[in-house]
Amino acid sequence: MADARDDTSGFACDDDVPIQYMARTRAYYQAIGYDVPYRWAHHIDAPFQPLKKPLAQSRVAIVTTAAPFDPAKGDQGPGALYNGGAKFYEVYDGDTSVDHDLRISHIAYDRVHTRADDSGTWFPLPALRELAASGRIGSVAPRFYGAPTNRSHRVTLETDAPEIVKRAKADGVDVAVLVPNCPVCHQTISLVARELEANGIATVVTGCAKDIVEHAAVPRFLFSDFPLGNSAGKPRDKASQAQTLELALRLLESAVGPQTTLQSPQRWARDAVWKRDYNNVALLSAEELARRRAEFDKQKDIARGLRETAA
Question: Mind telling me which InterPro entries this protein's record contains (predicted)?
Fold first, then answer.
């Protein structure tokens, strides 16, 4: 992975391919002591809702897995360690006419290659408002929707996704742009996209975990080959973020059927060395795996307490 291209043939490096997050995640949790492999959501087809009107006349909503910042919930800032205490367990929404401080410390984004210091990479509300002002879209929906990152397919399908559909219908949403962050986020968002689409709302998922989204089968998917946490573009790079959102809109306009994937032409870096690191057990010592197991158990206990309090 030293270079994007092989020195002798001119081909790309054989390892410069999308990360297989499902396989890597299974291997990681097995290595820290969890023997029962997680079953990822899998479909072989997807619902599809063509645009009912041009985007210039459409009301567009954002669905996010980011969480509202709460100073009482510990470190949620740039570079923060995984913070299970910042999780949320019920769908929430927010007024899109004002700015919001949403963070991703509660989910497993790529903390090696991303500091999470630019919310434009996971919550493109300001960029969407600019598109409404320019006439590229008709309007921004009055609310955005927060989808809990949930390992339970049942809870997502029976509770969270229908609730988001209900709110989107009440807001007169025509189109939804869904932005995940961690591996499980990508699954959650994919299931929500399917539910929205089945209820007449056209969707596009913008994400970085290609295998998870395509395994779940969504109507439209814009794939950015970036580290997790950058589904809406590169940090501190407004041009990248603008292009990512524009590509998502073009996919909404051009897809002729479900399970249409468009890959962004943007590259994260000249080489693909960054792809080695995320939860790669081959690079972790026995001591580090043990430390991670202890930390994971600690965060599970925190999350369990939050769920019980919420209930």
Answer: Various_sel_PB
Token couple for 17: 């391919």
The domain segmentation of the chain, as residue ranges, is 28-39+269-310, 55-263
Under a CB-based contact definition with an 8 Å cutoff, are residues 232 and 223 in contact?
A: no
Q: Which residues contact 125 (CB under 8 A, 6 or more apart)?
A: 62, 96, 99, 100, 140, 144
Tokens of 304: 């369990």
Dihedral angle, C-alpha 110, 114, 118, 120, nearest 10 °:
-50
Residue 303 DSSP SS3 = helix
Nearest Cα neighbor of 211 from 15, 4, 37, 24 is 24
Residues 6, 12 contacting (CB under 8 angstroms): yes
What is the identity of the amino acid at 244? T
For 266, the token pair is 């943007």
**Would you state the structure tokens that stand for residue 82, as one six-digit string?**
């995984």
pTM: predicted TM-score of the whole model, two decimal places: 0.94
SS3 of residue 255 by DSSP:
coil
Q: How far apart are CA 130 and CA 141, in angstroms?
A: 13
Q: What pLDDT, in 10s, does the model give residues 26-83?
A: 999 999 988 888 999 999 999 999 999 999 999 999 999 999 999 999 999 999 999 9
SS3 assignment for 185-244: HHHHHHHHHHHHHHCCCEEEEEECCHHHHHHHCCCEEEECCCCCCCCCCCCCCHHHHHHH
